[in-house]
């Protein structure tokens, strides 16, 4: 399980309703998968243009070796009638190597021709479904910026594949969360439980620190 989502497209995770100019006609069947034509070629199967931002595996790996990659991280929360955080959500995922289950937060790349707000909504929908009804913050000021490095010890945040710069946001989910893609389940706990050392120890690679910073920023 990658620390940060790869964003190599699957047939069911393209936001087809969003306007993309010349790419409005693109359907999931037109996607170029990692085994197809390279993103640098400018066309997919049958000469169809590749939607901007979607990269094949070889291209994204090449970019990761040369430059930092922009990401967003979302800390899902539920709030009460006074706007106070009542529950914090963490995602349960399984390792591709040994099936070990661990906790993480919503994290995904910002793609070309996509605003930060669109990236937040798309990555939430990718992990928690389309009916979460996220209440996005009025300001795009992140509560922290997490800089992931491929070298352990450079920062509290680690991703073996890349140097990634992640803008971190707390988002209130007012709808129903239906885990999908690589997410096995989403578990909601009270803030005091989320801040317990034994709980934070289940969030590797710096996501524990992001959770603490988010709750501290909200006055918890």
TrEMBL record:
Pfam families: DUF4916 (PF16262). Residues 37-47 have a biased composition (Gly residues). Residues 15-32 have a biased composition (Basic and acidic residues). It comes from the Bacteria. Residues 1-54 are annotated as: Disordered. This is DUF4916 domain-containing protein. It comes from Alloscardovia macacae.
């Amino acid at each position: 399980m990658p620390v940060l989502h790869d964003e190599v497209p699957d047939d069911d995770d393209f936001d087809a309703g969003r306007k993309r100019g010349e790419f409005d006609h693109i359907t999931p069947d037109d996607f170029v998968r990692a085994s197809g034509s390279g993103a640098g070629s400018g066309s997919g199967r049958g000469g169809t243009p590749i939607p901007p931002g979607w990269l094949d595996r070889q291209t994204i790996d090449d970019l990761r070796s040369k430059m930092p990659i922009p990401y967003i991280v979302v800390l899902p929360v539920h709030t009460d009638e006074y706007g106070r955080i009542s529950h914090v959500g963490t995602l349960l995922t399984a390792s591709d190597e040994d099936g070990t289950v661990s906790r993480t937060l919503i994290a995904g790349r910002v793609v070309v021709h996509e605003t930060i707000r669109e990236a937040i909504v798309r990555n939430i929908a990718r992990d928690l479904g389309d009916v979460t009804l996220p209440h996005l913050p009025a300001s795009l000021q992140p509560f922290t910026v997490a800089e992931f490095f491929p070298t352990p010890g450079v920062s509290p945040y680690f991703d073996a594949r890349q140097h990634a710069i992640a803008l971190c946001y707390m988002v209130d989910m007012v709808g129903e969360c239906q885990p999908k893609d690589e997410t096995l389940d989403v578990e909601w706990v009270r803030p005091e439980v989320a801040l317990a050392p034994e709980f934070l120890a289940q969030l590797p690679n710096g996501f524990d620190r992001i959770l603490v910073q988010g709750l501290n920023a909200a006055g918890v």
